[in-house]
Amino acid sequence: MALRTIDQSLGGAGYLDGHMLIAMPGMKDERFQRSVVYICAHSHEGAMGIVINQRAPDISFTDLLVQLDVIGEDQAIRLPPRTENIRVLKGGPVESGRGFVLHSSDFFIEHSTLPIDPGIGVCLTATLDILKAIASGEGPDIAMLALGYAAWSPGQLEQEISNNGWLTCAADGDIVFGAPLQDRYDLAMRKLGIDPRMLSAEIGHA
């Protein structure tokens, strides 16, 4: 569960960390059709993000805590009530056995938590410590756990956007953390002023 090195010196013009990618209707990769990806890191070395609108099948947050030995099966009924609302997402095709927690900025672990967007208060932590904190009632106020992530090599994401694979927009906290998963794609489109029903696969990127 340890988070591998992510370039924390981002911020150059044109980088999309803290933004959302919205798959175009013509997306050929079935893994990303109708997906919304929250970009956690983007630099000249590539990009990394979490798909935020695909639920991981057949597993709950409580199940994961038991599988990872964070809690015993007999402790499940004593978890804090808000853990019932923590979604488990299919975060992307890369290292789908690893967990990443996107969460509110009221929780921080030195050398483990990556602040992404101070404006809407989004951070990323990928150590067991945050799961233990959540299980004990001391974790972030808002959190969701993603299994796996999406990654792009240097220049790959820029090329995909240029080829009309993705639309981009600034992240919206209500979409990232609040909206039902099944509504996030349409809400992200409407944030750009686009009616998804009218969108052609040939439209240019925003």
Give the class-level CATH name.
Alpha Beta
Spell the H/E element sequence. Answer: EEEHEEEEHEHEHH
Which CATH architecture is right?
3-Layer(aba) Sandwich
- How many H/I helical runs? 5
First and last CA, distance: 35 Å
Number of domains: 1
Q: Provide the gyration radius in Å.
A: 17 Å
Q: Please name the fourth-level CATH homologous superfamily.
A: VC0467-like
Q: Can you tell me the CATH topology?
A: VC0467-like
Percent strand equals: 25-35%
Portion of residues in helices? 10-25%
Task: Decide which structural class fits the backbone.
Answer: alpha+beta
Q: What shape does the CA trace take?
A: globular
Biggest sheet character: 9 strands, mixed
E-strand count: 9
Low-confidence segments: 1-13, 202-206
Give the mean pLDDT.
Answer: 87
Key attributes of the depicted protein:
206 residues, alpha+beta, VC0467-like, nine-stranded mixed sheet, 5 helices, 17% helix, globular, disordered N terminus
In words, what does this structure look like?
The chain is an alpha+beta fold and 206 residues long. It has one domain: VC0467-like (3-Layer(aba) Sandwich), CATH 3.40.1740. The protein is built from 5 helices and 9 strands. Strands 1, 2, 3, 4, 5, 6, 7, 8 and 9 form a 9-stranded mixed sheet that branches. Strand 6 and strand 7 form a beta hairpin. The longest helix has 8 residues. The protein is globular, with a radius of gyration of 17 Å.
